[in-house]
C-alpha cells in the first residue's frame, strides 16, 4: 500500500509506541473489501456483492496494514463469512493480519448464503460487555455494536460503532436511540458511517444534551473525490482529542478517519 507522505502529527504513521495515556482510533467503511474508483464501479462491480472476486484479499491486507497502527478500529460494511467472501470472516481475518488480538462483530443484515453484513471492532485491549442493537428505521438492517474497552490504568471506555440509514427521518430516530445508550458517568466514543454531515450531528439535541461532539475534519466520501463528511468520531467531554485526520489512501468508497485521544486515568 502506498500512503502519501503524512503530516507531522499523523498518528497512523508513527511507531507503535505512543504516550501511555493516548488511544489511537480508526473508523472505516470497508465496503466488503472492495475498492471503488468512480461511480461506474457501483454498476460494473455490483456482482461482487454476491459472488467472490479476485483482489478483495489483497485489499483486505492493505486495510489490515493500516489498522495495525491503531489501538481500536471500528469497521462498517464488513462480512461475517458468506458466498461473496468465499466464507471468509473479514473481521476475524483483519484482526489476525493487523495483530489486534481482540475482536467482535455483529451481523446487521443476514442474507445467507450470499452475504452477512456486519459491524466489527478490532482492538489491542480487551473488549467487554458486548451488546448488539438493531436500530429502528423504515428499512431493517441498520445496527450498532457496543463494547467496553478495558485498558489497564484507565477508566473503562464505552465504544459504539454504527452504520446509519440513508434517509434523514430514519437517521433522526436512530440517533435518538443511540443517545440513550450513553452510560452514566462514563466516557463514550461513537464511531462509524453515519451517512450525514457534521452539521446534522451538531443540530441533534439529544447528542448535545449528553455532551457528544463530532470531531470535525475533511470530507470522506466518495474516496476518489471526497466531497461529503459521512464518517465520524464523536466523543464525550472527558476524552480530549490530541490529533485527528482523514487518511488519504482509498481502500473502499469511503476514506478512513483517524483520531488520537487522551484517556482519563482511573
Largest sheet: 6 strands, mixed
Enumerate how many helices there are, as a single number.
6
- Please state the overall shape, judged from the principal axes of the Cα atoms: globular
- How many domains is the backbone divided into? 1
**How are the strands of the largest sheet arranged?**
3-4-2-1-12-11
Helical amount = 10-25%
CATH C-level class: Alpha Beta
Low-confidence stretches: 1-17
Give the CA-CA distance, first to last residue.
Answer: 38 Å
Strand content: 25-35%
Mean pLDDT: 87
* CATH fold topology: Deoxyribonuclease I, Chain A
The total beta strand count reads: 12
Could you give the order of the helices and strands? EHHEHEEEEEHEHHEEEE
What's the name of the CATH homologous superfamily?
A: Endonuclease/exonuclease/phosphatase
Amino acid at each position: 500500500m502506498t500512503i502519501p507522505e503524512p503530516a507531522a502529527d499523523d498518528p497512523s504513521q508513527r511507531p507503535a509506541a505512543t504516550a501511555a495515556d493516548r488511544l489511537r482510533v480508526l473508523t472505516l467503511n470497508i465496503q466488503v473489501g472492495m475498492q471503488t474508483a468512480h461511480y461506474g464501479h457501483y454498476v460494473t462491480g455490483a456482482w461482487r456483492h454476491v459472488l467472490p472476486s479476485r483482489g478483495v484479499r489483497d485489499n483486505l491486507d492493505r486495510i489490515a496494514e493500516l489498522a495495525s497502527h491503531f489501538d481500536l478500529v471500528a469497521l462498517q460494511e464488513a462480512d461475517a463469512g458468506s458466498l461473496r467472501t468465499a466464507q471468509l470472516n473479514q473481521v476475524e481475518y483483519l484482526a489476525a493480519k493487523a495483530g489486534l488480538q481482540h475482536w467482535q462483530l455483529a451481523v446487521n443484515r443476514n442474507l445467507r448464503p450470499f452475504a452477512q453484513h456486519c459491524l466489527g471492532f478490532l482492538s489491542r485491549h480487551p473488549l467487554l460487555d458486548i451488546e448488539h442493537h438493531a436500530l429502528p428505521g423504515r428499512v431493517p438492517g441498520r445496527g450498532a455494536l457496543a463494547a467496553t474497552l478495558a485498558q489497564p490504568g484507565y477508566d473503562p471506555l464505552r465504544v459504539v460503532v454504527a452504520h446509519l440509514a440513508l434517509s434523514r427521518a430514519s437517521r433522526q430516530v436512530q440517533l435518538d436511540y443511540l443517545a440513550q445508550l450513553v452510560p452514566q458517568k462514563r466516557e463514550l466514543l461513537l464511531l462509524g458511517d453515519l451517512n450525514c454531515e457534521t452539521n446534522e450531528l451538531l443540530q441533534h439535541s439529544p447528542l448535545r444534551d449528553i455532551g457528544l461532539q463530532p470531531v470535525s475534519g475533511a470530507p470522506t466520501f466518495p474516496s476518489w473525490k471526497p466531497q461529503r463528511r459521512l464518517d465520524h468520531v464523536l466523543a464525550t467531554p472527558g476524552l480530549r482529542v490530541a490529533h485527528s485526520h482523514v487518511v488519504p489512501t482509498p481502500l473502499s468508497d469511503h476514506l478512513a478517519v483517524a483520531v488520537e485521544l487522551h484517556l482519563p486515568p482511573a
